[in-house]
Structures are given as structure tokens and as C-alpha cells.
């Protein structure tokens, strides 16, 4: 039975507050945020009022969960429905003599969170935690937030993600005959990119640079191609390494993936160029370029890219 | 006891509806679809009717699950039987004064889904979710779908898979003495191939091309074979990488596997050719081809593939 | 209490039938078969008989599990005891007015299965599923199978394994004072080897062949040894790859492991030979073979393996 | 109801003791300590007193958990809330005739633990285990520790971590109207670095040294660059290997990561230098350095780094 | 209440027997033994005696677990407390008319086991399974073993480990005022090393040998160093491969790790030697060794290691 205090039966007002304790894990690939939260629901049940003077000055009691009415608030973004249901079973609400109940519990929450990786590793994620009654509409139960932001008083900072915001909104989902009010928390977190810089970008840039210096190697040195291929494979391995830890999105290709793809294509082109140069270098002089090709290259292109001196060398 | 309203005991009509919220994961290897669904069953129980005027205008109540009859609808394609049973335990059906019950619950469903990977990464998967009573046949319980398609009003798009359809069919499995009606939902999803292109096919094609350019390298350059072997090993690694994420099917070999296998064989052949060429190149002139072999090669084959000029070179 | 119908208390006859729905996974390393099964137990309980005419023509009822006696049939080969126990809790037996009960439930069964990998990937596995009462011996409870084979009417074919047989046997384990009858099902499955061919054997054979062609390379080409070492390492990686997915057996070394070990030794020998040849090739002529060694090699061995021409070359 | 013995209702004194049995796992990446603990709570409930003489000399009884009041002590640093709640369900408190209760249970505790990896592998971790009542404040329930340190009498040493301390503190979290006393245990563990030395640092230093010896190779030997690149890639692989097992921290970059990053940059620089040297070595004499550059290098820099003799060689 | 039969209240005698069915897994890294066991507890409860003649010749009944007193025997070495507690909930003890109870259940036991890897892969592990009452001391409950060894009648041999012994000891842990008797089983298992030989040692020895033959290569062949580096990296990969599957112990460094570390250092030294030799080989004659160095090397050291002939060669 709903805890209605008056005969006109207003909806039960359930106040929802949430304390973020810890961000345990952000799994980019399956797009799940795992966090440690303290959930608290406050409401009033007039049937649970008493006069403390008559009852030995007892002002607060703790009853078993099955003895009182508990709202069926559900986390709509849960990625593990049972976690939430199980932990509720063992909790006891705190009941004041005025009929106010507090039902709070610690919880490890796994929630789905759309991970936008366009700007990886500079990404800012915004994860939704929507709490609403599962079966009572707004004629029976209304939810509200206790403060404009979530509670961060017990928050322990995460190493990998910095918390940018923990806001709360009260909104409503309207159906034809009824509407379901909800309280929605938004956890905004920004990735610390330093770890990515050191462990992923630094080696990658180093390898790219080596791939550039490849062109300084003399063609008669046999190392030129193996250096190019090694750079290429390293780039591919790095690219696959990053891809395996990011979600397989379609709409947004992260900039870092574009960078890697371009790098791979560039290094591949330079490897092909090297092969062509070695082909020319080893070709006997009996196969000559037509005179007009030479003129075009040396006079037109050469004057553009100032090929003068190295061109002398190439002809030797 | 079955909730029969009349003495002729017609089968109880249970209406099944399903809302797809999220496709959480498609594991191609073990062929399991993990999705977030809202399940709703509607039926009528005449024993749970009352006159609201007599009961203080209460039109809707929520009773504990153990107080009323609940149909034993089972997901026949479940890959994790307990998930479904556990989550049902904690839900409370909503009962209207007319005797109509609604039993709905959010659920993370793991269902087996035959993954057809012939056209990977262009594959379209069709996953079945068959709901039917476990122990009541059609003389006792009948199921029906509420609409010709599943409910997508709360669907949140997935990054990796686009939803192509979410249809529903009512069919029946007939045994000798009884038949079991069922409501079967079909989730049709199509893979976004962009992610595969960038992270798997692009590097692979780049490496294949490098393997082709290998033939441009002069034989006296020692790099030719190491380049071929590197290409070959890279192809093998890519092939094993893809194979490990696809189911080990027998009936259908995916086209992409065929492509990789052919690439491997081709690159291997070109490596062998290179070895043979280097053998010829280094062989001293004292071992000569018989005159007729030369003639056959140069005059017959040469004229076909226009070998003229490079043949000159080969003879030097 | 046991459901004895007569005063002489014969053992309760429990009929066990099993429907194989799906083979979900065969984990060769930890030797576990994961399958989706429908289990059905039939028995008679005289205390649950009634006259349908007196009870409003009700011929079948569904009672909660805790209201009736349920046999404690246990899967003796279970690799996850709780899976089976949990799923039983939520099921309701179907009771006919004659006193016959049917207790059936869908189940995901993880059972230990001795994996014989001698003939991998041509292996045929035979997994046992032994059902027997845990605490009632044959004086109290007797089990029997309903048909000579398990039920395959709802079987959905697996991609990786083809079902060769699904037989059932009734046997008995005898102790000094009592004996426990059991019904044992055998799932026989044969691996589809095509997937192994394409993804594991094809690259491996290709690499072995390249290792053979190594000998065609001229010794003065520096590539000969790096090619040999690359082949060797690739063989080792393939071998470790297969080994990691097979159980670490002692009694039976699979033929494929023997093949890989021999290949590794052969490629290693050929690499060593190459090193020796290069040593000889680069050695200055001042260190000469003794005359009698030459004679032995050229005249004795040479005539056997027709070394004539290439021997000329070696001396140049 | 709270077990108040007198009318002035002092807070219930709950004594908390903890025995560390085993450190099962320290997962640096997700920052979780998994340990095997024995938890014991002692308190007094006056309602559970009796006179043993009247009751057949029974001085101790064991009652089911649901029959008596149990304090809702919660592990605030738990990383798996259900583990703790589940195991409590099955335990029976021991009740003495004086009204003293002991509620103890073995538990596998997963607790979050901030891992400071600055000094890895010489790191000393300090993991907090805070026990406090969840819903009773200090007016109702007070906690205390039984001894100044945790109990180590049954501790079994861990292979990887040595226990440096297991202290306990009693503190209090104060809110505006109430305060929650807590008993906090600190597990201090120090990593045994020998395993890291042998398996991670030894190979890494060996590879770095090889990268240094690279400069001894003559420039005309083609191996110089491939050796440098191999060293570079090995360093990168080692660096990624370590990074994957450490948490992605921002505030503190571990010294070992700094060392690896510097090594990578150094080896990369030496590879680039090698490329430049080979460039110079192969450049034909027709392109000469300006006279003043030579003078600067040889006379100024050369005199500083004593370039005399090798400079002679470079000019040849 | 304890099942005391007489007024002097002797401790309840609980007889513990254990049948080992299967060794499912030995995880060396986290040091956990996973085995399939049948646990059986026997004791006498005088309150559960009856005269079969009065009760229709019923001599044995099965009661629900919650109806009778069950000893709180706990596995002290459990690595997963809930596994044991859960499976007990569903079992029914068998009660004889004499008051003797048998409480048996199949169980998958995960127990911590100190893994001594000094002699890997020749290691013999001894895993303890200590059963004792959790809250009853020896004044209330006494445990005993039924036979000097554990029951192996239903044991199915493991592929990877051979069972060397399954002994049982009865001992006691004494505290100041009370003592807790326990029954401790020891599972002794010996690893089959054949699998390690073939898949880990064979390739490793092959690669070491190749690293030795490196010295036979002529210095002017550029392959010498790349061969050395390849051997070195292969050794490192093998070493890391083994290290990742063994626990990170400090006290005992396994012999195989020492072997690998020495091999790495040796191969590294040989690579450095090769670099030095190449340096000398390529150095122009203008830089000469001082006369006295030559004399020392050739006359003193040379005469020791019989350097005669190859010394000649080195000077050419």
C-alpha cells in the first residue's frame, strides 16, 4: 500500500540524493562506468508515526525492509540489474517518530555510459544515472532531488579521471495517460592525458620521426627499406593497440585514429618511394629517362623545390 | 491456480511486449547477444477484481510477487538462465481493480544468437528471443504479442551495430497431445564496417601492397627477401587476429578469411619466386640454360607478356 | 517423506530425460563442456492424487517446489554445482490428478569432460553427464531413462562441433551395503577441422616451406640466416599458440604438437647447417680440408647424392 | 530494536577486531586489494542474559542471525558490497549467558586501495579498511578497537608482498547534527622487488646496453641501424608492458616510467645520429663542408671532447 | 542447540570425510587450487531417534537443513567463502532412526595453496584443506577423520598433475582458554613436466644453441649481430612468458628463472663480443695495437687457449 497521509491521496514525495565516493573503472570498449555510490531515499509514511513520550522516548527505529513500504526506485541506466536489487534486500530503513524514513545504502553501480571518443585522449565523458520509479506514475509517486548538485563530500579522487561536474536534473517522461518523473544525475569526468602521452604517444612519435629520417639514409645502404617496414609495422601495432581499447564506433572516428591512419599511409608511401628510388639507383645506365622528362623534372619541379645541389648528387 | 474467470476455463491470455533499450554487446566468438530490455506481461485474473468505491477509491495496487499467480514465461534462447529468474523475484506486479495485471521488469538479457559471419564485416545478424510458457500448454495459457513490432521508443543507438528491425511473430510448437504457443522477437542488427576498415583492412592492404612492390627491388639488394617474409608474417598475424574474434564456423568460411588465405599464399609464392630469382642471379654463368629453354621463354612467353626490355636487363 | 504408494515401499521410480538444445562452448584447456539442456524428471506421488470430478474438473495443477517432494537428482559431472541448484529453486512441478509429477527446467550445464586431444584437430570427444540421486540408494529411489537416446528434437547445430551421438545408459554404482542407480548421458561431438586448417595449419605449412626454400639462396646473400631464424621463430610462435589452447596433458602428446616439435628441430638444424656453410664459404683457402676428407665426401657421399655439379660450384 | 540495557540508553559499544589471514591479490591497475580476513564483532545485549543454573548449566548458545540484533557495521572501502552482505547472512552469533555476543565470520574482502606507484618496484602501499555503522550514529552505537594493532596470529606470508604493518585507529566523521565513529585498519605492504629485477629490469638493462654498444659498430656495417631500431622497439615493448600493469595515474608518474621514457628518447636520438653518420659516411667528397665549419668542429668542439684520433679516421 | 545426548554434555563428535573427485585447475599465479570434492559429515543427535516399529518401519528420513542442527564446519583455506556456504543451503541431511546423521554434498572447492615453484617444472605441491568448526571449541564440538587417508575411490586422474598423496591429519589450534580441533587434508600433486619440455624448453634450448653457433659466422657477414639480437629477444620473450604464469615470489627464485637470466646475460655478452670483434675487424690498420698488448695476448693467453691458427686468420 502507498503511504498516503491524507484522503485526497497526493503522490508520495520521494527525495533522492546520491553521493559519489569513487570512480572505480571506465571501460571505454563496452561503455560502462563502474562507480561506488551512496544512495539515499527520503520519504514520509504517516502510518509510521508515533508519540515518543508514550514509547519510552524512542525517536528513531530501524525496521527490516520487508516490514515497511519501500519505493521501487530503479536505476534506468544500470548495466547490471541484479547488483542494485541484491544490495537493497539487506538494508534496513531508518524511521523517525514523525514518519520520515531514510533508506540509504552503499552500492557499486555499473551503468551504461555513451563514451564519446572523438577527442581521445582529451575526452570529456558525461554519464547519466537516471533514477525513477519503475511502476508508480506521477499520480502515485513523485521524485525530487535534495540539492542542485550531487553530494561530493566523501569523494575520493580518481587517478585517471578528474571529476568536472556532478549535476542533477529533475525531468519527466510523458506517456499518453501518465508521466513518470525522474531524478537524473550526470557524472562529468575528464581524462588525464599524461599517461597516454608518455606510454602511447611518445613512442609513436619517436617511431614516426625515425620513419622520416629514413630518407637521409643513402640508397646503397640496404637498411633503408627494413627501417621503413619496421616503422610501418610499429605504427600498425600501436594503432591496433589503441583501437582495441576504444569502442568500435561508427559515427565518430577519433582524431587519434585518423592521425594513426594517416601516419600509416605516409610511412607506407615513403617505403614505396624508397623501393622506387632503390630501383632507379640500381638500374644500369642503359635505360635512360627521355630527355624531356629530365628537363621537366629538373627545370620545372626542381626550381620549385630548390633541388639544385642534391640533384647533382642524384645524377652521379 | 490458474486465474480462470469462467467455468469453461479458457486459456489465460498473456500479452507479451518487449522494449529494446540498448544493445550492450555482441560476442561473435561465443555467439551471444547481450542486450538491455524491458519485459512486460499483461493478463487478467478475475480473482483480483474489486469495486474501488468500496475500497476508498483505490484503483491500483502493487502486491508482492508471491501473493499472485505469475505466468512461467521463459526466454527459450537464454544463455544465462539465472539472470532472468533472479530479476523476476524482486518485482511487484501492478494490479488494476478490473483484474488486469501488468508485470514488467528491466532485464539484462544474454541470449544465444547464431552469428553468420560469411559477409563480415558487412554482416547482418538476426537474433531470436522466443518467449513461451515453460509448463502450461495452449489449453491453459495462450500468449500473444501486443503490436506487430517490438517497442523501440526508448532505444538508445549502439555505436557498433545499427538496428535494422525489431519484429515479432506469434507461432506455436506442436507436440502430439499439446502445443505450446510462443511470441518470438527478432532483433536484426547490421555491423558498422567503418571501424573494421580503418583498424584492420587499411593496414592489411598497405602491407599487401608493400609485398607487391617487393618485385621492384633489384635482386642484388639483400632486402628483397626480408621484405617478403615480413609481409608474409604480418599477413599471418592479421589473419590470426581476425580469426580469434570470429566464431570457428565450418559451414561458412567468411569471405575475409578467404581473402587473407589467398593473400598469404600469394605473398608466400612471391617470396619463393624471389628466392628462385636470387638463386639465378647469383649463379655463375658456367651453368647455362639449355638453348631451347631460352628460346621458349623469350620468344613464346616473352612475346605474350611483353618482356622485351626487362629481359635485356636480366641477361646482363 | 518419500512418496510411497503402497505399504511394501518399493523404491520411487524416477524417469530422467534430457534434451540437448545447444552446445555453447567446449573449453579444451580446462576441459569443460558448456551446454544448454532441458532436464525433465517424471515420478509418481500417491499422496497427490485426486478425483477431478470432485474438484471442478481440474486435472493438472502447478504447485510450488517447496510443497511437494522432489528427488535430489544431482549431476555428478557438474563443474559448477550452484548453477544446477539455483535453477531448481524457482521451478514449479506439474502435477496430474493421477499423481504423476513432471519436474522440468531449462539449464545451462557446465560439466567436466575429459578432452582427448591426441588427434587434434580430428578429435572426437565423449562427454559424460551422469544423473543420480545424491542421498537415496536403490532401496528408496530408482532412476530410469525414458528412451535409449537423449532427445535431440530441439537441437540447434553448433558451428564448431558436429554432434555424433547422444546416447544414454542406465548403470549402477555398488557399495558394500547399498547401490546407487544412475542414468548417464553421453554427448559425442566431433570437431570441424576446417577452421583449424585455414587459420593455423595453412600459415604454418607456408612458413615451413619457406624454411625449406632457404637452401636455394646463395650463401653469399646475407639473407639466408635471417630467413632461417625468422622461420624458426614463427614455428615457435605457432607452436606456443596451439599449446596455449590445448590442455597440458602428459599421457597423450597430440600428433600436431609432435609435428611442430619436429618442424622446429628441423628448421633449427637447417639454420645451423647454413651457419656452417657460410663459415666454410667465407673461410680463406689457406685452411684446406685434408685430402682424404675431400675424397670421402666427393667420391663416396657425392656419388650417392649426385653432388657433381653443385660441388664444382662450391669450390669456386 | 537496539539492545539497551539501562534506561538512559547509552550507545551500544561494539568492539571490532580483524585478523589478517592472507593477502590474496593486489591489482595495481584497478587499485583493489583482495585479502582473506576474519572479522569479529563483540557487543552486549542485556535482553539475552540468563541464569545458567536455571537452564541446565547452558552457558553459551548459538542463535540464528535473524533472531538477534546485529549491528549494521559496513566496510566503507569495499569494492564489492555484496560479498560482505552475503557472507553475513549465513553466520550464527555466539551468545554467552552474560549477554555478551560474538559475531565472527571469515570473509574474502575486496577493498579499494589507492596505489601509489611513484617508487615502483620499491613501493609501500597503505590500504585502508574502515568499519563503521551505516545507519546508527554515535548516540546509538559506538565502535572501538580491541587492540592497538590488528590480529596477525594466523597470518600466512604472501610471496609478492611483505607485511610492514597492520595498525588500527579509532576516529570519527562529524556531520552537523551527528557523528559516526569508525574503526579503521591500515594494511601496510611492501613489494618484494626481486621478481621485478629479474624479469623486467634485467632484460631491459641488457637491451639498453646493447643500444649503447651500437656506436662501436663501424658505419659501413649495415647492422648499425637495425640494431638501434631493435633496441628502440624492445624498449617500447617493455615500457608498454609495465604501463599496462600499473594504474593510469596522472599526479604521480612512477620513476620507472620516467626512466623508460628517457631511455626511449636516448635510443631514438642515437638511432637518428647513426642515420646522420651514415649519411655523411656515404656522401661523396664532392659536397664539402665549408672551411669554417670544419675549423669550429675540430678546433673548438674537438678540443673539448678530445676528438683527435677518431677524427682522423672520420676524414678518411 | 547442540545435540547433547547425556547430561554431562560431552562434545559432539563430528566425523569428517572427503572424497577427491577431480583436480579442476591449479592457478600458479594467484596460488589457488580448484578441485571437485564430496564432503561428508557424520554425527549423532539423540533428539532425532525413534523406534521404527512405531513409525511404519521407516528407518531413514531426509529432513530439510533448517529443521536440524548442522555443525558449522568451515573450510579455513577457502579462497571463495560463499561457494561453500551457498551449496550447503540446498542440501538435506540423511537421518537414521538411531540418531545418526549424514550430511554430504558435492562441492567445487577453491582453496588457497602455497605454490612452491623452486623446482618448476618438477614441482610437487602440497595443498592444505583444513576443516574445523568456526564457533564451537573443543568443549562443545570435536572433529575426527574417518580414515587415515582421504577417499580416492571416485578419483578421476588429471592430465596435468599426478596425485602423489591425499593424507589427513587431526590436530588442534590452542588458544588461552579454549582449543579448536580440526581435520586437515593434504592434497599432494606432482606436475607432469612433459608438456613444459615440449612447448617451452625445446624451443628455448634450440634458440640458445643458435645463439652459440653465432660465433661460427664470419665477422664480415652482417648477419652475426642480428642473429645475436634475435636470440636475445627470443630468450627475453620466453623468460617473460614463463614469469607471467608463475607467482611473483621473493623467497624462492625458481631454477628455471635463474637459467633464463643466465642465458640472457650470456647471449648479451656474446652480442657485445660480436660488436667488439666487428669493430676490430673493420678498423683500418693505421690504428695498431701496442706491441706489448699483442705479445701478451698471443703469447700468454693464446698459448693457454691454443689460439694459434685462428689468430693467423684474424690478422689477415
Automatic annotation (TrEMBL), chains A, B, C, D, E:
GO molecular function, one term: transmembrane signaling receptor activity
Residue ranges annotated for the Neurotransmitter-gated ion-channel ligand-binding domain, each copy included: 6-193
One Pfam family in the UniProt entry: Neur_chan_memb
Keyword Plastid annotated: no
InterPro entries: Neur_chan_lig-bd, Neur_chan_lig-bd_sf, Neur_channel, Neuro-gated_channel_TM_sf, Neuro_actylchol_rec, Neurotrans-gated_channel_TM, Neurotransmitter_ion_chnl_CS
Alphabetical UniProt keywords: Ion channel, Ion transport, Membrane, Transmembrane, Transmembrane helix, Transport
Ranges that cross the membrane: 196-218, 225-244, 256-278
Localisation per UniProt entry: Membrane
Residue span(s) of domain Neurotransmitter-gated ion-channel transmembrane: 200-304
Topology class, membrane: Multi-pass membrane protein
This protein's GO CC annotations: membrane
Entry's family note: Belongs to the ligand-gated ion channel (TC 1.A.9) family.
Protein's recorded name: Neurotransmitter-gated ion-channel ligand-binding domain-containing protein
Species, as recorded: Capitella teleta (Polychaete worm)
Amino acid at each position: 500500500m502507498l503511504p498516503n497521509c491524507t484522503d485526497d491521496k497526493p503522490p508520495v514525495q520521494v527525495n533522492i540524493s546520491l553521493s559519489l565516493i569513487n570512480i572505480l573503472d571506465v571501460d571505454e570498449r563496452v561503455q560502462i562506468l563502474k562507480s561506488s555510490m551512496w544512495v539515499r531515499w527520503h520519504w514520509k509514511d504517516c502510518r509510521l508515526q508515533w508519540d515518543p513520550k508514550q514509547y519510552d522516548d524512542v525517536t528513531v527505529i530501524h525496521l527490516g525492509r520487508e516490514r515497511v513500504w519501500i519505493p521501487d526506485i530503479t536505476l534506468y541506466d544500470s548495466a547490471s540489474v541484479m547488483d542494485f536489487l541484491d544490495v537493497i534486500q539487506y538494508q534496513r530503513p531508518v524511521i523517525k517518530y514523525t514518519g520520515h524514513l531514510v533508506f540509504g545504502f552503499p552500492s557499486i553501480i555499473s551503468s551504461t555510459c555513451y563514451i564519446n571518443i572523438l577527442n581521445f585522449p582529451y575526452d570529456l565523458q558525461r554519464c547519466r544515472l537516471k533514477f525513477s520509479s519503475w511502476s508508480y506514475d506521477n499520480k502515485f509517486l513523485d521524485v525530487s532531488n535534495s540539492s542542485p548538485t550531487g553530494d561530493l563530500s566523501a569523494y575520493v579522487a580518481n587517478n585517471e579521471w578528474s571529476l568536472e561536474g556532478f549535476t542533477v536534473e529533475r525531468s519527466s517522461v510523458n506517456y499518453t495517460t501518465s508521466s513518470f518523473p525522474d531524478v537524473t544525475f550526470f557524472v562529468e569526468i575528464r581524462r588525464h592525458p599524461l599517461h597516454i602521452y608518455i606510454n602511447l604517444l611518445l613512442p609513436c612519435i619517436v617511431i614516426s620521426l625515425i620513419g622520416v629520417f629514413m630518407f637521409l639514409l643513402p640508397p646503397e645502404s640496404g637498411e633503408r627499406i627494413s627501417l621503413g617496414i619496421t616503422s610501418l609495422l610499429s605504427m600498425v601495432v600501436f594503432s591496433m593497440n589503441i583501437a582495441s581499447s576504444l569502442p568500435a564506433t561508427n559515427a565518430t572516428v577519433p582524431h587519434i585514429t585518423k592521425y594513426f591512419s594517416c601516419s600509416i599511409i605516409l610511412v607506407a608511401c615513403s617505403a614505396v618511394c624508397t623501393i622506387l628510388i632503390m630501383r632507379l639507383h640500381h638500374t644500369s645506365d642503359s635505360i635512360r629517362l627521355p630527355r624531356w622528362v629530365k628537363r621537366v623534372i629538373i627545370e620545372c619541379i626542381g626550381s620549385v623545390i630548390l633541388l639544385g645541389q642534391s640533384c647533382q648528387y642524384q645524377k652521379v
